[in-house]
Specification:
Blueprint (H helix, E strand, L loop, with lengths): L1 H30 L9 H10 L7 E4 L4 H9 L3 E2 L10 E3 L15
Parallel strand pairs: 1-2, 1-3
Length: 107
C-alpha cells in the first residue's frame, strides 16, 4: 500500500511540475507579445449557425466519456469534436492543462 501511495505522490508531483511549466510558457508568450488566438461571440455564433444549432449549447469532451456525451446530446447540446477548439460552453477534461484559461471568454 505504501508503494501505491508513493507512486500516487510521484504522479501528483509530475502533474504539478507540468502545470508550473505550462504557466511559465504562457507568461513568456505574453511577455514576448506572441499572438494568442482570441475567440469572439461572433465566431461562436457563426460556428453554431454553420451547424444548424444556433440555440444549442456546445460541449467538448477530452477523453472517453460516452455516457456523458449521450446525456448531453439527449438534453439538446451540440458536440464539438475538436478537442483543441475554443468554441464550447462546456469543456470536460481530466487535466487542467487541457484548458487554455488565457483565451476563455468571461460570461
Amino acid at each position: 500500500m505504501r508503494e501505491n501511495g508513493a507512486k500516487r505522490d510521484e504522479y501528483q508531483d509530475l502533474e504539478d511540475e507540468n502545470d508550473k511549466e505550462q504557466d511559465e510558457i504562457a507568461k513568456l508568450r505574453l511577455e514576448r507579445g506572441m499572438r494568442r488566438e482570441i475567440i469572439t461571440n461572433e465566431a461562436i455564433t457563426n460556428w453554431k449557425r454553420s451547424r444548424g444549432c444556433l440555440n444549442a449549447k456546445v460541449f467538448v469532451i477530452v477523453g472517453l466519456y460516452p455516457d456523458l456525451k449521450r446525456q448531453l446530446i439527449s438534453l439538446g447540446w451540440q458536440e464539438n469534436p475538436n478537442e483543441e477548439s475554443l468554441i464550447f460552453d462546456l469543456k470536460w477534461v481530466t487535466k487542467k492543462k487541457d484548458v487554455n484559461k488565457d483565451v476563455l471568454l468571461e460570461s
